[in-house]
């Protein structure tokens, strides 16, 4: 039986739901698009798709891993936030500025 095409998305969704169910006082979930940046081993499909994902609009546009890190740090240090926040790729890009 072939591996489910959307295995990553399904597992990530299950993980998010499990975290939300734990009722943390504050929880931020990042949902970046294709991550760009240095890595030890390049993946063939990412090398092929990366130029295309740079041209896509909004939440489909690729994002640098360092920008995700900047955005998550900014979110963690921001006062007055309680409950669950889900940040899309566009929102991560905006917070990374």
From TrEMBL:
Q: Which Gene3D superfamilies match?
A: NAD(P)-binding Rossmann-like Domain (3.40.50.720)
Annotated EC: 1.1.1.-
Q: Which InterPro entries match?
A: NAD(P)-bd_dom_sf
Keywords attached to this Swiss-Prot or TrEMBL record, sorted alphabetically, are: Oxidoreductase
Q: Which GO terms describe its molecular function?
A: oxidoreductase activity
**Descriptive protein name:** Oxidoreductase
Its source organism is Citrobacter freundii
